[in-house]
Amino acid sequence: MTREELYQSIYTHETIYIPPQEEGSAALEVALGCSWHKCTFCDFARDEFFIHPLSRIEHNLQILGMLQPENTRLFLLGENAFCLSTEFLCQIIDLVAKYMPNVHRIAMYSRADDILRKTDEELRLLKSRGVAALHIGVESGSDPILAERCKGVTSAQILDALHRLEQTGIDYFVTIIPGLGGREYSHLHALETARLLNQLHPKNIWCLKLKLWEDTKLCKEAQKGFFQMMTPEEILLEERLMLENLHVKDCLFEDTTVLDQYTIYGMLPDQKKDLLRAIDYLLARP
Ligand code: SF4
Known about the structure:
The chain has about 290 residues and is of the alpha/beta class. The chain has 11 helices and 10 strands. About 40% of the residues lie in helices and about 20% in strands. Helix 8 (about 185-195) links the parallel strand 7 (about 170-175) and strand 8 (about 205). The structure holds iron/sulfur cluster (SF4).
C-alpha cells in the first residue's frame, strides 16, 4: 500500500478536521459524530455517533505509528471524543504509548458536560497520562441563547467545567459563534459571552461567525421567520461589542470568518486596541 492508501484506510472520511491550534498533530479516529447531536445550528456532526472498538483503534494506531513515528502530538478525532469513559481513554493512551512512544501531548474536542461527568480524580489521571488540551464549543455565554439553540448546557455548567480543567492543569481552547442569538439577542449574546469569558482563562478564543447550513433546524427557523439572521457587518459589530467588554489575559483572540473573507488575530489584552481598530477599519470600508 502507498502512504496515501494507508492514510485512507484509517479514516472514515476523505477530509479530516482538526483545530488549527493542533496543526501538525497526528490524528487518530476514535469516534464518529457527536454524542449530543442536538444543537440546532450544527452541521459539523453529520455522522451517527459511534465509538470505534479498541481493536480498530489499535489497528489504526499501528498504521499511524508507522506513518508518523516521530510525532509527539496526537489529536483524537470525534466531535466530542472526551465523552469516552476515562477507562477507555486510558486504554487508548496505553496503546498510544506502545505504537507512538514519542507522543507526549494529546488533545481532542469536548463538550462542557463531558468534563462534568468526570471526577476530579479522573481529570487528574487523564492529565497525568498526557491529555493536555481540550477544544470546546462554548458558542455563547447567554443562557436563553444556549437553550434556544439546544446546546444542552448552561453558562454556569460551562463555567464549572472549565474551572475544573484549570484546577487540573488541562489547557482549553474555546470557540464562540458571533451572530448565534440573531438580531434580537445580539447585544445579550455579546455582553453575556464577554461576561462568561472574563471569568475564564482560555488559551485561545476562536470566533467563527454563524453560518446557516441547509437542513439544520436553525436554517428552517430562519426560513419561517422565527430567527433573524444578521448581516456579516452586523455580526462584526456584535463581535466588536464583545471584544470591547473582554478582559481575559494571555489569550489569543482570532476570527477567521470576518465579513466572510478576512482573518483577524491578536493577543489579549495587549493587542485589544489593534483588534478593535482593525474591526473599525473593516466596518468603515465602502
Ligand atoms: S455539541 Fe458540538 S458537535 Fe455536537 S451537536 Fe452541538 S455543536 Fe454539533
